[in-house]
Design brief:
This protein is mostly helical and 296 residues long. The protein folds into two domains: 53 residues, no CATH class; 167 residues, MetI-like (MetI-like fold), CATH 1.10.3720.10. 68% of the residues lie in helices and 0% in strands. It contains 13 helices and no strands. The longest helix is centred in the first third of the chain and has 33 residues. It is flat and about 70 Å long.
Length: 296
């Protein structure tokens, strides 16, 4: 009998073709073009608002990309006279800061309980929490206006803070619950084995790890509270308690037949700049909060 030689495996042919330098260049250029188009689309309204705020009131309807005559008159007019815009900015800061702080306190404990405890209807509770934030603000204005009128809360800060919490807390709970679920439970167990109580493990181990997520949630809650309009417009008619968004909508021109578009543009820039600066300063923390998880 003749010896049978083992058959050699056939060489496999790799069908993948390495992209050429020209192909990679076109792919990179395509991605860059898409990013530029999206950036221009998103930033164009803000750019036009800035440019319009730097025009003279008589030139507000010009269509040039840059003002023909630069003027800061609109910014001076915003704070001049009886507009009380400086007070309105302070009111917005108070309402947004208190709303954010209270929402974070509630959301931290609620998200920890939802992420760590096993109980029935957990998914349904999360669905209800996020569902409450989807109700339009106008749907709760009438009952809240009646309630706050009866208890004497009209023209007060709490009349704006309490309704804002109904939208800020669901957002904060949802974000922090997703983040808490990614943190390893082994760290808490190790801390308790070393003698820490449940509260100490939460405060000294879990909470520092959750700091990026808490920080990101605080930024989002602050922005939402800062931009709130319909509740503040409905619950407050005293200029001493108006927020900046309401004050902008109530600007009046020199006569009843004139709309102060230039001053409104300048006020819009003033209201938007603090948020932009805050995002630019804390962008690293925000990215950490959106991307960090159990691997940390």
């Amino acid at each position: 009998m003749s010896a049978v030689t083992p058959s050699r495996p056939l060489a496999t042919v790799d069908s993948r073709v390495e992209p050429t330098a020209r192909t990679r260049w076109f792919e990179g250029a395509g991605r860059a073009l898409i990013i530029v188009v999206i950036a221009v689309y998103c930033l164009a309204p803000f750019y036009w608002m800035v440019v319009s705020s730097l025009r003279r009131p008589s030139d507000i309807f010009e269509t040039t990309l840059v003002p023909t005559t630069w003027s800061f008159e609109n910014y001076a007019d915003v704070f001049a006279g009886s507009t009380q815009f400086g007070r309105a900015l302070l009111n917005s800061l108070i309402v947004a800061s208190v709303t954010t702080a209270l929402a974070l306190v509630v959301a931290i404990f609620a998200s920890y309980a939802i992420a760590r405890l096993n109980f029935r209807f957990k998914t349904a509770i999360l669905a209800v929490i996020i569902g409450t934030s989807m109700f339009p603000g106008i749907s709760v204005v009438v009952p809240l206006l009646r309630l706050f009128s009866d208890i004497g809360w009209i023209n007060t800060y709490q009349a704006m803070i309490v309704p804002s919490l109904s939208f800020a807390i669901p957002l904060a709970v949802w974000n922090l619950t997703t983040f808490m679920k990614q943190l390893p439970y082994d760290l808490e167990e190790a801390a308790m084995i070393d003698g820490a109580t449940k509260w100490q493990a939460f405060r000294k181990v879990l909470l520092p790890l959750a700091a990026p997520g808490v920080f990101t949630t605080a930024i989002l809650a602050f922005i939402e509270s800062w931009n709130e309009f319909i509740i503040a417009l409905s619950m407050v008619n005293d200029p001493a308690y108006r927020t900046a968004t309401v004050a902008i909508s109530l600007f009046t021109g020199a006569s009843d037949f004139e709309s102060p578009y230039a001053q409104q543009m300048a006020a819009g820039v003033i209201v938007t700049i603090p948020l932009v600066v805050m995002i630019l300063i804390f962008q690293r923390r925000i990215v950490e909060g959106l991307t960090s998880g159990a691997g940390k």
